[in-house]
Amino acid sequence: MVRDQGSLKALVYLQDGASLRILPCSHLSPSPLDDTLLEVLAEAARDVVRVDVKAGDVVMMDIRALHRGSTDADMRSPELAAAQKILVSTVFGPVASALAQAMQLGNAHRLADWDRRFLAR
Fold it and tell me: Which residues partner with 90 through β-bridges?
């Protein structure tokens, strides 16, 4: 688990959507960076909020908050394939922090896994 000063994540939505789910106040406690452990925490949480967005909306959040976008089932759905969405996101925070370094490594692994599962069809 990594406990570090926060960083802000900006999510810029280019289409309407409702895939963002977030657990309010979850940034106040240390969270594991392991996807499997995060899934267990997210499944057990009762206060998960789904955020409806419109094209042009920007959502700012503490990067440490438990959050997710589309599920694996969503990614496999023919509806999503027919109407693909584009999300632009960036993170603002200290580059040399332990959190930033852990996120960089974790994101590289997640993107490679995502490419393998959903783009190599």
Answer: 10
Q: Which amino acid is at 1?
A: M
Q: Are 68 and 29 in contact (CB under 8 A)?
A: no
Residue pLDDT, tens place only, 91-121: 887 877 777 777 777 777 777 887 787 777 6
**Sheet bearing 67-68, strands edge to edge:** 49-53, 17-22, 67-68
Task: Look up the pTM and report it.
Answer: 0.67
**Would you tell me how many other CB atoms lie within 10 Å of the CB of residue 51?**
16
Q: Which of 54, 48, 78 is nearest to 66 (CA)?
A: 48
Residue 72: closest CA among 31, 114, 110, 120: 114
Q: Which stretch of DSSP H or E encloses residue 105?
A: helix 98-114
